[in-house]
Amino acid sequence: MSKYLVAILLAGAVAAPAYAQDGSTFSGPRVEGIVGYDRAHVEGENSDGVLYGARVGYDVRAGRAVLGIDGEITDSTTDECISGFTVAGDRLCANAGRDLYVGGRVGAVLSRNAMIYGLAGYTNGRITLDYNDGGTGAANFHDGRNLDGVRVGAGIQYAIGRNAFVNAEYRYSNYEDGVSRNQVLGGFGVRF
After folding, report:
1. In contact, 103 and 120? CB cutoff 8 Å
2. Other C-beta atoms lying within 10 Å of the C-beta of residue 63
3. DSSP secondary structure letters along 140-176
4. Which positions ≥6 away from 7 have C-beta within 8 Å?
5. What is the rounded distance in angstroms from the CA atom of residue 80 to the CA atom of residue 76?
6. When comparing pLDDT for 8 and 131, which is higher?
């Protein structure tokens, strides 16, 4: 009986490395949290803030190539305020709010744990304007607007064990009405 147990354990030990290298490291459904630097550009003015959010996706690996789809929701602390906009004491603030994204990515596996990728897709960002007249409030207003755009980017993903990963990414989003964003972010995720 013990020789069968030893044979089973030995077979399992030999098969485990083969299982770990079966090409599925960058394959399947995934979910991740992301955080990073956000720079919004609106009508010649730049504003900086922190980007944070979540992304879900699904990847299929074919040899060293990886094809995937992504869906993402983020928010940002990026805003810009101007005092004395039209009269002394008034204040106008523009805030870069939530951003929705859906797109695809194409990757190349560099090693057992590392992959580089490029991404492209549709993005919809929300910009809000708040104006306080600094007096009676009769001219105060709050207005939000959704802007459609296109996002492109590139990144690197590094597997930590079989299911967890970290990544670093740069992306550029170009929206209608001359609004754009540059973002550098990091993420931590899990594959299922």
Report:
1. yes
2. 8
3. -EEEEEEEEEEEEEEEEEEEETTTEEEEEEEEEEEEG
4. none
5. 12
6. 131
Contact (CB, 8 A) for 111 and 142: no
Task: Give the C-alpha separation, 156 to 67, whole Å.
Answer: 14
What separation in angstroms does the CA of 169 have from each of 4, 8, 107? 50, 43, 13
* Domains, the chain: 23-191 (2.40.160.20)
Q: Which residues contact 124 (CB under 8 A, 6 or more apart)?
A: 99, 100, 101, 146, 147, 148, 149
- Looking from the CA of 182 toward its CB, the CA atoms found within 13 Å total 5
Do residues 71 and 58 lie in contact, with contact meaning Cβ atoms separated by under 8 Å? no
If one counts every other C-beta atom within 10 angstroms of the C-beta of residue 112, the result is 11
Torsions phi, psi of 52, nearest 5?
-150, 150
Angle at 100 between CA 121 and CA 160, to 5 degrees: 75
Q: Which helix (H) or strand (E) holds 110?
A: none
**Secondary structure letter of residue 136 according to DSSP:** S
Strand-pair partners of 62:
65
Instruction: In the chain, count H helices and then E strands.
Output: 1, 9
Q: What is the CA radius of gyration of the chain?
A: 23
Phi-psi region at 99: left, alpha or beta (left = phi > 0; alpha = psi -120 to 50) = beta
Tens digit of pLDDT for each residue in 14-51? 433 443 444 468 999 999 999 999 999 987 788 999 99
